[in-house]
């Protein structure tokens, strides 16, 4: 499982949770992304290690662009922190005024899973994250 398939599944689960009003699933997705970002025990990495692959493609999702890294913090971890923060704020803290944000995120993450191109991930790489 690569990051592309992870994003496809994450976006699908998020849209299902939003459509059916499953707040427990949204809590789970937020807590999963926070856990993965803090511990760096990401599901795609764990599955790759179980399959015997030591280092899956580190440039996956960067479109072959060589970004200048200014920080040792990984862009995948930053992506997960941003997703968890934006979901928690828009769904649990300000659900009225920001009702469109989780839907936008769900479709954007689903699109990133389908196409393999995530604009937020590319922006984090451009900002200097590893």
Automatic annotation (TrEMBL):
The lineage of its organism: Bacteria, Pseudomonadati, Pseudomonadota, Gammaproteobacteria, Chromatiales. It comes from the Bacteria. This is DUF2892 family protein. Keywords: Membrane, Transmembrane, Transmembrane helix. The chain crosses the membrane at residues 6-35, 78-94, 100-124. It comes from Thiogranum longum.
């Amino acid at each position: 499982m690569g990051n592309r398939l992870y994003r496809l599944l994450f976006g699908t689960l998020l849209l299902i949770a939003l459509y059916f009003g499953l707040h427990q699933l949204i809590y789970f997705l937020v807590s999963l992304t926070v856990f993965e970002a803090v511990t760096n025990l990401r599901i795609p990495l764990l599955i790759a290690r179980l399959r015997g692959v030591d280092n899956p493609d580190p440039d996956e999702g960067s479109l072959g662009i060589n970004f200048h890294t200014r920080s040792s913090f990984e862009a995948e971890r930053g992506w997960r922190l941003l997703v968890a923060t934006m979901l928690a704020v828009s769904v649990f803290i300000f659900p009225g005024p920001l009702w469109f944000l989780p839907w936008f995120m769900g479709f954007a993450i689903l699109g990133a899973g389908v196409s393999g191109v995530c604009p937020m991930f590319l922006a984090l790489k451009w900002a200097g994250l590893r």
